[in-house]
């Protein structure tokens, strides 16, 4: 799987959705912005939580977007792996399968 293609495809689908239901997506965007900017946890910690949820609910597009944000936030492979370990503990076998995908995504997005 090419994770960069997943990101491109996801963004293209989201652009179409945003044009189709702009009021809903603007509201969701405002909520997303507020969650990231407010509160006591830093953005990187919040993205770790989001990645754990994305893996647990098996959303590949979500995995790609949150891994990309974590790469930009300076997350290390070891930190990602620790988050994935906790997600596996909570999510069992299915989370294990998607944790492998998340680590693969990280490796692809950080390959130079």
Automatic annotation (TrEMBL):
Q: Which InterPro entries match?
A: AhpD-like (IPR029032), AhpD_core (IPR004675), CMD-like (IPR003779)
Q: Which Pfam families would you find in this protein's record?
A: CMD (PF02627)
Signal peptide, first to last residue? none
* Domain of life from the UniProt record: Bacteria
Limits of the Carboxymuconolactone decarboxylase-like domain: 22-103
UniProt name for this protein: Carboxymuconolactone decarboxylase family protein
């Amino acid at each position: 799987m090419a994770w960069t293609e997943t990101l491109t495809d996801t963004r293209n689908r989201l652009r179409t959705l945003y044009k189709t239901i702009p009021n809903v997506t603007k509201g969701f965007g405002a909520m997303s912005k507020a969650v990231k900017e407010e509160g006591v946890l830093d953005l990187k910690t919040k993205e770790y939580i989001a990645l754990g949820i994305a893996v647990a609910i098996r959303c590949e597009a979500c995995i790609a977007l949150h891994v990309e944000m974590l790469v930009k936030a300076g997350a290390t492979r070891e930190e990602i792996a620790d988050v994935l370990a906790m997600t596996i503990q909570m999510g069992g076998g299915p989370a294990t399968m998607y944790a492998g995908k998340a680590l693969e995504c990280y490796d692809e997005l950080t390959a130079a």
